[in-house]
Amino acid sequence: MPSIPVAGIGNTAVQVTQNIAIPMTSSGHTLELTLPISMSSGRIYFSEGAMSFYMMSIGTGDCLVQPSLTNLQDANVGLKWGFVEFTYTGGTIYANISYVDFVGMILGILLTVTDGTTQSAAGLQADSVINICNDLVTQTGTDGYPWSSMCLANTTGTPIRVLSPGNFYYLNADAFAKYWHSYVDQVWAQYTTSILTINTQTDYRDVSCTVSGDELVCNGDNRGYAKPSANDIWGCNTGPFAIMDGDNTIHKAVVPRLCAAFARSTLLLDGGNVQPSLNSASYYTIDPTNHYSRVIHQYEVDGKGYAFPYDNVNPDGNENASGIVSSGNVANLTIYIGAPPS
Questions:
Q1: Is a pLDDT exceeding 80 seen at residue 342?
Q2: Rounded to an integer, what distance in angstroms lies between the CA atom of residue 7 and that of residue 287?
């Protein structure tokens, strides 16, 4: 294995010039690899063309500079690429495909357990990037918001990537600034005079929440929730959805369920006063909503793959929109590139 260069002095990024890529076999063939060591929070990158990686000193050591989605000067901006995230420690593997940040190269995963059973997240249809972009163009024509601008093309004009609205924020912070305002105001008005029940899906079970003053306040929660901005709803980890040191169990349970309800626009629907309780047929059915997530789920072969950070929030014993596979008795993990398994 080639050695990796040490970063230079003064936070200067040093390009990894050694050939660290593993060439793939031709279409329809399989390449088998064995992991020699345990790995935590790893990514397996795939690309059409040679990707560029860098090393940089951060004072306490060197770190890997990975490709940037939002830096249009990034060396990899014109390449089609993607990755599968995984952790393999103590004989247990966790792997997932995710569209929280972007849609790029089409990938799917199949986990085979030693007893012969399987788990899968098949991913998107082969031509999904172009189809998603076409649908976002249509959505822009419908509501006037720049959904279509989240599609990035290579030098030939071919769409190769779709940014999530949370990442598009870093290219155009004002694009969706007012998108959720009216919906948030309606939610606050409704739950000023009625009760929102959050099923924490913990030992605390149902928690009652109502608007008091400017905040949504939930019984037993250590602090309330201010009105979220558009970027808070896209990312689910800022503003009222930021989880802080000292937050109690109820708060940590309410945050993902409340943000998921906003992203899916279910808080004002019949039955939306209990979260989560509605099934996926009720998600993204009214405006405003997260049309990026809506369109992605339309092209997922089996409906699996995170399209926003808390896409794993589901009603009790019902459905699974996440793209996670895991087992402590793994035989092998198969990754499909370019198209889902047939």
A1: no
A2: 48
